[in-house]
Each structure stands twice: as structure tokens, then as C-alpha cells.
Design goal:
alpha+beta, Ubiquitin-like (UB roll), DNA polymerase, domain 1, globular
């Protein structure tokens, strides 16, 4: 049986792109075709957060989300957060606070943090933990991750106040 292919058009990290996708292809596989490797398929069940991609600003599990549903949407990956060679406040805070060890889960945590801080500029530790509860870190860098989110939130608030 032949695979059904569809042409889709979407914005990827701020750039308009198009792709021919199989109707069963997921977002992680689609990202690989654009040489974007930050979203990683780990559990294949949407339980770990390693495959996180932002679709119109909303975090989705790239291993479970069909690529065809990206048509007409705006997608953001970890690779699209830096601007002009500068890391985002969240990325820099994760580095400054040592909020990773192996780095495998880090892109998902950072994208989820971007989503959180877009909705809540000053989250409590409980809100941070709740929002990031769908992401798993095998290295157990959780205290450093919460600290990094607090630092990023503070830096973002300071920038807006300036």
C-alpha cells in the first residue's frame, strides 16, 4: 500500500517553510528533516517531555503529535530560541544555575519554561513544579531546574521594567 503524502506550510522558528509529510509522521520526525535535533523521542508515549515542541505557543508532545497538524501553524524548537547569537533568558538561566547534567531532557524543560513564563511572569515554586511535572529528568536536576526558572522569570521581569 502506498503512503499518503500531504504538502504542509508552516512557520518553523520564525521562518516560513513547507514539507511533504506522510499522514502518520510525527513532529519529531519532521523536525529531523530540518536538521533540528533538540526534540528527542524518548518514551514514545508523551510521558517524559523530551520531545516537546511549541505549536502556536502551546507545548505539545512531538512524539504523539502528527506532523500534518502543523499545517498553517507556528512551531518553535529549542534551536529557535536564541536571537542573533544570544541565548534566551531561560536558556542562559539553565546554564547559570547548572539545571542540567546530561542535557537530554533540557530542551523540553526550557520550552515548557518559556510557555510557563509567557503565561505567568512570577510563578511560585509550586506553580513551577506543577507546570513542569510532565517533564522527566533522569539525572534528578530538579532543584536546579526550579532555581533556573526563578532566575529566568526575574531576569525577564527586570528586562520589562527597564
Amino acid at each position: 500500500m502506498d503512503t499518503i503524502m500531504r504538502e504542509i506550510h508552516f512557520t518553523l522558528n520564525g521562518e516560513p517553510v513547507e514539507a511533504r509529510v506522510a499522514t502518520h509522521e510525527n513532529l519529531v520526525d519532521l523536525m529531523r528533516r530540518f536538521d533540528l535535533v533538540g526534540a528527542r523521542e524518548s518514551c514514545g508515549q508523551g510521558l517524559c517531555g523530551c520531545c516537546t515542541v511549541l505549536v502556536d505557543g502551546v507545548a505539545v508532545s512531538g512524539c504523539l503529535s502528527l506532523a500534518i497538524l502543523a499545517d498553517g501553524k507556528s512551531l518553535a524548537t529549542i534551536e529557535g530560541l536564541e536571537r542573533n547569537g544570544e541565548l534566551s533568558h531561560v536558556q542562559q538561566a539553565f546554564i547559570d544555575e547548572g539545571a542540567f547534567q546530561c542535557g537530554f531532557c533540557t530542551p523540553g524543560f526550557i520550552l515548557m519554561t518559556h510557555q510557563l513564563l509567557a503565561a505567568n511572569a512570577d510563578p511560585s515554586d509550586e506553580e513551577i513544579r506543577d507546570h513542569l511535572s510532565g517533564n522527566l529528568c533522569r539525572c534528578a536536576a530538579y532543584p536546579e531546574i526550579v532555581s533556573a526558572v526563578r532566575v529566568a522569570a526575574s531576569r525577564m521581569r527586570d528586562r520589562k521594567a527597564a
